[in-house]
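Table S2 (continued). Query chain:
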Amino acid sequence: MGAKLRVYKRRIRSVTATKKITKAMEMIAASRVVKAQRQVAASTPYASELTRAVTAVATGSNTQHPLTTEAEKPVRAALLLITSDRGLAGGYSSNVIKAADQLTERLKAEGKEVDVYIVGRKGVSYYNFRERKVVEAWTGFTDSPTYADAKKIGAPLIAAVQQDTAEGGVDELHIVFTEFISMMTQTALDDRLLPLSLDKTAESEETPTGEILPLFDFEPSAEDVLDALLPRYVESRIYNALLQAAASKHAATRRAMKSATDNAEDIIKSLSRLANAARQAEITQEISEIVGGSAALADATAGSD
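Corresponding output:
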């Protein structure tokens, strides 16, 4: 019985140590998700207004810009997948990878080749293990991304969109990330960044002959304005996606660590009950041995008399 009690106590100490670690990780994730949530709230209006500005320029002019013009027969698309550098976040990375796989299959069904760009070690490991081609990857900053990281990611993507498909360029740019909705809800989302989906009548007017005329004049030209705005548009959207992904990851980590802490508490309670039962059985056995020994001694004493 003593050996069994020692086993239970050793397991209780081990689980208690694990519980302290998961509790600390839960508290760290909770503090980080609040900061990330504030960054998301601060960056979203800028990204939204910049999108409106680019849309106004594109729809308010007759300029055929390569970043806003739909290809007649698109043959290649770029896909930016944002995952995490670390685990311990439940199904966070697996969910967004699954969404990327679904988007890839849909694009291939439309007859398009897919060039994959990845952010985060989890996504890189997934594609490397399956020997899938990755054009470029970035790691090491998913927990706390900066705008400089977004610019670094956006540069090759913008270059690919501006390049002719015959030379390795792409017709479309898609991004797959985890949208932060609330502390309890995060959803894997795919979105097309380029070319922009434009409403040609939003910032224009139609003549009696059916011709669409722009309502704005641009200096030096609409094309120059688009050249200046579109890189910032792509960078701001990527930055916002990185921040939303970071907030979602921290929320998922907090939820996973809370579940692990609760499970540890349940295991400790169960082991404590087993340890108490083993100790009670040991005490009962010791009492029985004492009573038996006392009775034997009494019988021996009575026989000698």
